Amino acid sequence: MPSAFEQIVLSVSPGGMGLILFSIAGIALLVVFARKELRAELGQRRGLLDMAAGLVENPQLTVGRDGYPQLDGTWGEDRIRLEVVSDSLVPRRLPQLWLKSTLLTREETPRPSIGVLARPIGTEFYSRALGLPDTLAPPFNTDTPMLIRGRGLSEGDLQGAGGMLRGLFADPTLKEIVITPRGAGLVRQIAQGDRGAHVLYRQIRFPVTHVPPDLVRNALAELRLLNEALKPAASA
Predict the structure, then answer these.
(1) For the whole model, what pTM was predicted?
(2) What tens digit of pLDDT does each residue of 192-226 get?
(3) How many angstroms separate the CA atoms of 159 and 177, rounded?
(4) Based on the domain organization, do 25 and 99 belong to the same domain?
(5) In this structure, are 16 and 62 located in the same domain?
(6) Which domain holds residue 201?
(7) 19-51 as b/e, with b when 16 or more CB fall inside 10 Å?
(8) How much is the average pLDDT of 1-29?
(9) How far from 157 is each of 22, 63, 103, 116, 166, CA to CA, in Å?
(10) pLDDT digits 0-9 by tens, 94-123
(11) In sequence order, what are the beta bridge partners of 116?
């Protein structure tokens, strides 16, 4: 007795069978193309920090579960970490690609902590400023919404850092800075997602093949600048 599948096949006309086979072949091709596109996308993600590896000493590149890379290394006596972070949590905004940079010193510096987050919306899962307990008012007038958090931070400390913060956040690609006794960090935009891919297909694609070396150099220089702030000798 023919199986259920065989009965369906026998009941289909030759023309209908051709249409079915054509549809199956089309679906198979779409699957092949989708897998090829995914492999290409993952390969592009993994290579985003390749050009940055030569800017730090003892570079070590690793790749996270999402396919985005992390670069660890040293810069003089300090430890450096660069992370590529993809952010697509805001429905009515294009996906964002961030460079999260961290400088860690060998020894703690006796100073307060401060974190400044520009344009906060509450979905910044990568933010370190949100982990600080105290909220303070910005030390200068700005059209950019800012959330300032700290620990052990006085109004005098904040006023003293006001000029530096104003200069840094004049650049709209800067999302966050943080200064702690162990070092400094910042988050800066690399790129926005491709509008067509996001709006039409709900896909996350970024029009970059690597993080520009100049962006990394600037981030390293800014980390050094931040790490010199709020030290007792500087505020004396």
Answers:
(1) 0.78
(2) 876 554 444 455 778 899 999 999 999 999 999 99
(3) 16
(4) no
(5) no
(6) 47-235
(7) eeeeeeeeeeeeeeeeeeeeeeeeeebbebbee
(8) 56
(9) 71, 38, 21, 14, 14
(10) 789 999 999 999 999 999 999 999 999 989
(11) 148, 177
